[in-house]
Write a structure and sequence with these properties.
Blueprint (H helix, E strand, L loop, with lengths): L6 H12 L5 H8 L3 H13 L19 E8 L5 H12 L4 E6 L6 E7 L2 H14 L4 E6 L13
Antiparallel strand pairs: 1-3, 1-4, 2-3
Helix pairs in contact: 1-2, 2-3
GO biological process, one term: response to amino acid
GO molecular function, one term: sequence-specific DNA binding
Keywords: DNA-binding, Transcription, Transcription regulation
């Protein structure tokens, strides 16, 4: 289903991206509309797949997950069976926050959040025991300079 998005929809989406916990009244006030049209538009955007699951953002460092690694993976394996095993291994590891297949010299990049370097090594050892990987390079993020989940609407 294709959903047409107008300026009001974009304003509503921007407000939801800013704080999805707002009441309908608050969103309606911010976008210059009333509650019922805002609710109808949100419902339309959900049904159309524009709005997915609603969650909360948790501060990883507040929970002791102080190390963020970007893991660059090169593989010499490109068969469907290997890819299925690799994807299963990634899905079974909650430390993997993001995984992307890339064009270029690197095949995959992972964003991995763990408590410390020792926890990363446990993750790494488990991954390479589950699936054959040609080369792994781990880059430790020294500082998160910008983080957002909001799209520039």
């Amino acid at each position: 289903m294709t959903v047409r998005i107008d300026d009001l929809d974009r304003k509503i989406l921007s407000e939801l991206q800013r704080d999805a916990g707002q009441s309908l009244d608050e969103i309606a006030r911010e976008v210059g509309s009333s509650k019922t049209p805002v609710w109808n538009r949100i419902r339309k955007l959900r049904e159309g797949g524009v709005i997915g699951a609603q969650t909360v953002l948790v501060d990883p460092e507040a929970l002791g997950f102080e190390a963020c690694f970007f893991v660059l993976i090169r593989t010499s394996e490109h068969e469907a069976e290997w890819q299925a095993a690799f994807l299963k291994a990634l899905r079974n590891r909650p430390e993997v926050l993001e995984a992307h297949r890339l064009a270029g010299d690197i095949d995959y990049i992972l964003k991995v959040r763990v408590r410390n370097a020792r926890a990363y090594d446990v993750f790494y050892q488990g991954l390479i025991s589950d699936v054959r990987i040609h080369n792994v390079t781990a880059l430790l993020s020294m500082e998160e300079i910008k983080f957002t989940t909001a799209l520039p609407l």
